Automatic annotation (TrEMBL):
Keyword Transferase: no
Domain Adenylosuccinate lyase C-terminal: 197-281
Protein name: Adenylosuccinate lyase
Pfam families: ADSL_C, Lyase_1
Keyword terms of this UniProt record: Lyase, Purine biosynthesis
Reactions performed catalytically: N(6)-(1,2-dicarboxyethyl)-AMP = fumarate + AMP; (2S)-2-[5-amino-1-(5-phospho-beta-D-ribosyl)imidazole-4-carboxamido]succinate = 5-amino-1-(5-phospho-beta-D-ribosyl)imidazole-4-carboxamide + fumarate
Top-level division of the source organism's lineage: Eukaryota
Cited Gene3D superfamilies: 6.10.250.1570, Fumarase/aspartase (Central domain)
Assembly and interaction partners: Homotetramer. Residues from neighboring subunits contribute catalytic and substrate-binding residues to each active site.
Length: 306
């Protein structure tokens, strides 16, 4: 989505062209003795020499700062994406399920030597947050352009546009480093699934009981009571989740005790996720990579499991 937004913003760019001091092209019309066709040809030719195929049909002394707003909007939207991605990685790192690249001599914390803080993700979030803040700057500049540009417009524009592109580049370089060296710990994930799966299985247990002819509301209430009791054991006493043991010990659930192992199979909870990932890589990611394959540093290192 970000690639499409950035490409659209780039493709929509036009050139101001030869519009003259106030945008009316009055001086050029006078130069060509009132021949507007020549004025239009000059306008188009200057745009072509500058690398553009189109010009803005109406401008003032400058092109409208709405253009800058659309460009910075696309970059800020990218910043929101990067911030969300790295925030998720920071949460997963806190749970020790994933870890960003960590050098042998890297210091995770100046005070606590055992820590391995997700410093790159934190840095990316910092840059992305600055990128997000630049959107309001561009919006404010456009909104107060008044009848004509003033010096507060141009001075602000020079800062906002340059910072937006530089910040986006810096954040993307950090994110590239994080994603290329990301470490995943399946055993930690497996343990967490084991801790949470009993509660996740509640709905499946209810459905299994309904198939046996039991009342859903009654079953739901019994599950609610047992799950809260098990939750108290975990939160108040630091014990393991014994929800399933409580279900097995309750005579009410005798009709499905033999099915519990099947109901707890993690693969039954992932739905169409594997197929969705494959389709996403094939239909969305691969075409984008094809567009930019000539810019990839090491095309052979980009591997998709599709």
């Amino acid at each position: 989505m970000d690639e499409k937004a950035l490409r659209r913003a780039k493709d929509d760019l036009r050139f101001r062209g030869a519009k003259g001091t106030t945008g009316t092209q009055a001086s050029f019309l006078q130069l060509f003795d009132g021949d507007r066709t020549k004025v239009q040809k000059l306008d188009q030719r200057i745009a072509e020499l500058s690398g553009f195929t189109k010009v803005y049909p109406v401008t003032g002394q400058t092109y409208t700062r709405k253009v800058d707003l659309e460009v910075v909007s696309a970059l800020s939207s990218l910043g929101a994406t990067m911030h969300k991605m790295c925030s998720d990685l920071r949460l997963l790192a806190n749970m020790k399920e994933v870890e960003e690249p960590f050098e042998k001599t890297q210091i995770g914390s100046s005070a606590m030597p055992y820590k391995r803080n997700p410093m790159r993700s934190e840095r990316c979030c910092a840059l992305a947050r600055h990128l997000l803040a630049l959107f309001s700057n561009a919006a404010n500049t456009h909104s107060v352009q008044w009848f004509e540009r003033t010096l507060d417009d141009s001075a602000n524009k020079r800062l906002t546009l340059s910072e937006a592109f530089l910040t986006a580049d810096a954040a993307l370089m950090v994110l590239e480093n994080v994603t290329q060296g990301l470490v995943v710990y399946p055993k930690v994930i497996e343990r967490r699934i084991g801790q949470e799966l009993p509660f996740m299985s509640a709905e499946n247990i209810i459905m299994a009981m309904v198939k046996k002819g039991e009342d859903r509301q009654i079953c739901h209430e019994r599950i609610r009571v047992l799950s809260h009791e098990a939750g108290a054991q975990v939160k108040e006493h630091g014990k393991d989740n014994d929800f399933l043991e409580r279900v097995r010990a309750d005579a009410y659930f005798a009709p499905i005790v033999g099915e519990l192992n099947e109901l707890l199979n993690p693969s039954t909870y992932i739905g169409c996720a594997p197929e969705q990932v494959t389709e996403f890589l094939n239909d969305e990611v691969k075409p984008v990579l094809e567009k930019y394959k000539e810019y990839l540093k090491e095309p052979s290192s980009v591997t998709l499991n599709i």
